[in-house]
Design goal:
Strand order of the largest sheet of chain A: 1-4
Number of helices of chain A: 21
Radius of gyration of chain B: 20 Å
Number of strands of chain B: 4
Distance between the termini of chain B: 65 Å
Largest interface: A-B, 81 and 77 residues
Order of helices and strands of chain A: HHHHHHHHHHHHEEEHHHHEHHHHH
Helix content of chain B: over 70%
Helix content of chain A: 55-70%
Strand content of chain B: under 5%
Strand content of chain A: under 5%
Oligomer: heterotrimer
Amino acid sequence: MAAIVRRALDTPAVRPWALGLWFGLLSLPLMITSDPGYQDPYGYHGAHRALYVFATVVVVAYLWQVDQAIWPRLSPAGRKRVGIAALVLTVLTVLALRDVFGQALHGTLAGVGGEGLVYLLAGVFLVYALRGLTPDTTADGGAGPGVWQRHRRWLAPVGLVVLLVAPIFMNRYTADVAVQVGIYITLALGLNIVVGLAGLLDLGYVAFYAVGAYTYGLLSQGLGIPFWYALPLGGVLAAIFGVLLGIPVLRLRGDYLAIVTLGFGEIIRIVLNNWDEVTNGPNGILGIPKPKLPFEFVIPGVPEWLDPAGELVIGGVLRTPHGLYYVILAIVLFTVFVVNRLNNSRIGRAWIALREDEVAAEAMGIDTTKTKLLAFGLGATWAGFAGTFFAAKQSFISPESFTFFESVIILSMVVLGGMGSIPGVMLGAAALVVLPEITREFALYRTLIFGLAMVAMMVLRPQGFVGSARRAVELRGGDEPPAVKDEAATDQSLYEAQRR
Amino acid sequence: MPGAEHAAFAIFLQQLVNGITIGSVYALIALGYTMVYGIIELINFAHGEIYMIGAYLGIVLLSLLTAVGLADASLMLTMILVFAGAMLVCMMYGFTLEKVAYKPLRGAPRLAPLISALGMSIFLQSFVFLAQGARPKVFPHLFSGVGFDLAGARVTYIQVFILVVSIVLMIILNYFIRRTKTGKAMRATAQDRRMAALVGINVDRVISTTFVIGSLLAAVAGVMVAMYYGFVDYFIGFQAGLKAFTAAVLGGIGNIPGAMLGGMLLGLIEAFGAGYISSEYKDVFAFSILVLVLIFRPAGLLGEQTPQKV
Amino acid sequence: MKKQVFALAAALVVAAAGFATDVTAATYKIGVAGPMTGDQGKMGQDIHNGVKLAIQEWMAENPGHKVETVVGDDQHDPKQAVAVANKFVNEGVIGVIGHYNSSCSIPASTVYLEGNIVQITPASTNPTFTDRGMWNVFRVCGRDDQQGIVAAKFVADKGIKRIAILHDKTTYGQGLADAFRDALKKNHNMEPVFYGGITQGDKDFTAALTSVKAQNPEVLYFGGIYPEAGLLAKQAKDLGINARFMSGDGTIDPEFVKIAGKAAAEGSWLTFSPDIRNIPTAKASVEAYEKQFGPVGPYSIYSYVSAKILLEAVKATGAKSARDSKKIADHIRNTTWNTAYGTLKFDKKGDVTESPYVVYETRDGNFVQITGLNQQASK
């Protein structure tokens, strides 16, 4: 009997319904709300929402089956074509939602209640765009030297010029978003050293960010030290904290390390929140000065679209997001340069060796203690820089900016972008800052999607969207005895992810 | 008017009661961590969320049963149904959690399941937030306040209830692991998964069972905590999960009496630390202990020092 | 592969360009900021609703003018608050009503200062907000230190000697507790018998409360918000502490009674602004609000009043855009305003001149105003 049910559940026609039913049932008890006072801004309320879960799971499961039937048979060129088409569709749907095609279309969409559906569609398109355009690195055995290496000679200067002139086309808001992207790129690249290269899961990374921020905050308040001196100091201090944390946790393995770093992050936050005499406790530090350049030019008479005040100020105190943009751009370029060099250096290779097999690495003569400490120290440095800049940008810092959730966001950037891959991590950071800004309507669902994406990414594509080839091989290969692995493969589980 | 010495003793005793109550809850959750870690050597980050879901289920089921009028007819039966329902649904969640976030990654290096578990934890937290709303939920005040005085310290019946249930569950669990066939299979799997598979143990089923039992215990802890504090919000899983993990490590991860001991110790450290040193730094004590234990005695108080498998 | 990365980045930039919408000239835009989603979402929505009502009424009175709101969700995160502020400056709003949390209002205000925009907060009570000498900030609600003074006077008048103070280690909670302690010392020469913090989000406060119990206080004052307040009141009762529970405006929420239980909440003293339902001048506004949006929240009418003041000032000064913000600010500062809360005047810093706090007592699960009733009747 059980065998018949099992076989029935496995048929393509039944499985999506069975899965839908299971997850619908699972969510049902939690969908019953006993709190009439709660106002859901989206108007979804009550037990019938379990039906939505049911329907969504059924649809996704069917789509998955269709995908599995078609996608593996596509040629790399075909996948690329699908990717490009999906990319165009993504941009079009997003533009439609941003009422670029006029209020009329947008109004119609919203009117028929199709807005959410179009967002969903945009999300599906985006996934396929990423999937099609970022080839599965395991399949073609790594991306090789790549476009970047071949065209570096002209790509680098062109890219630089684009980045330098970009702010002219930005308004205050977009410039502020760009600055945030820069902060998170710096943070994510730093965490990438620890997690992506050295393979040490650090869940308290935000602590070093806080160290950098408070370094500048306190030094500027107490001693009047300017931003430019505080920036290296913040980095150095964060590095020292990184090493200090590194020493006790050196002996710990993956999971313990994760928990201890998490605890460390929380300790730092709690201390910042309670040490009123020094950090001003929960009230934080106010009036932190913005970076100041030693020169100042005023160009009068510029058109209003460029600057509302009618004059363009270059230098002086960098008050506007545009001015700050150049500071963070310099920090990001420096970070990318150094991280890139580290990646290909002796240390970088030592980290990777460590990540792949600690015992073998030690046998090959790598000093594991030193290598791990370096990873912690060098990883923390970037958080220190980012923190110092963050304090200057916000001109106000308080412990609530340095919660565990911040660590999680930075980690998701690294994981979703592709652990170990510099362009991947940068893209991950940019996407996780920009996407929530575009889809503010979905702010509530942001963490839900983060969590789901992290699970899906690990299960389906552990190397991330733009994985590094080396990393992919490691994440795919196992250190598990084959006997169990085979058994797992034959097991007819309820939710079996096809590992292509 | 009792003397100053007596008053100080009453305060001490009160902190002891406070510590043991919160310690039993930590211990119950810690059991889930310890069992899973013992078998697949992975921290189930989402375990705290199962506990949180258990607490929410307690409130949902109780309000449902109150609405149909059962709570007025028989409070005893209602509470049995609430516990049973929460346990059942949490077991389903634990089962699904393993299938979705762990099983596909069984051959992968450690980082992958850790991140997927963390993702699952975030997902479950925001799922409950979206499904149940942001406002904290209130468990009807059915049992609060009633209790007795013990040498100047106040003990409520629900505190006694929590302690008794925790101890009984731990004794049953210990018996289950030591004496039953499934329990033996679990221990075999914990020792050597490949060998266990070779002697005919269905390793997948054993791992599933472990998750299901851990979730069951978390559900009980969740409902009891909802009853005790009369209050649930969607953050409780993260905080309690972290503390319970600390407790499991303190006692020696993979060791069932160790989890019990670790939970109690942690509860007492928190109560006395907050009472006699500083309540602002309460969480710092807990985390510092975690760090210290891991550095000086990574196997925990009751754990055996084993050489690392290569 | 790298090429595709750039293509993607380009696509993201194109998509990002989508949110640069044009500024249309003939209409005024008002920024409304607060936590619109998440656990404090209700507070943000209350503020938004209050502004909506004010705009509707104002547009009905002043045909020919068009006012729009631009809503910014700061998710009670200081970083998001700055992003929202930059967005407002960018969209050319003529003034901002918000934010809700002090920790958001304060960093955002520097962006508004720089963008030359007037900010009126209906709800941020931290003194620092107006204490920094900025010309563009106003607050229509009270300040934490005023609240502390009122609470201290109240307990001193009752002849209460033994007071224990707890706070939740947040900007708001600790600020309130400190204001209360300082007022006790300065105005009444009293020292609390216990002063300490707990952790916001924690559930078990029995350890701290046991230390409180050892001091045998008559009043337990808590600086913080309702979830912790409810748990504290309940656990204090369970521990057999016979002190009267007292707290501030963050606790005045029906949930407090639900969490604490009617028995433990009974008799608690809470300081808050006068009950809007007892104020004759507010009757019409409250009715209009409740007809559209349901029950008024604690800050709904404050934000309604803020928006009214801003709009009237814009009209009176003939301001066209945020460039005239100095004029708007001067007008707000130099005018006596007739509002739903009675007459309001702003001082130099931007605070209202009269301390609006009164004391409520929890009776049978309801909050009943017990001081300041006579003054209102005479108004």
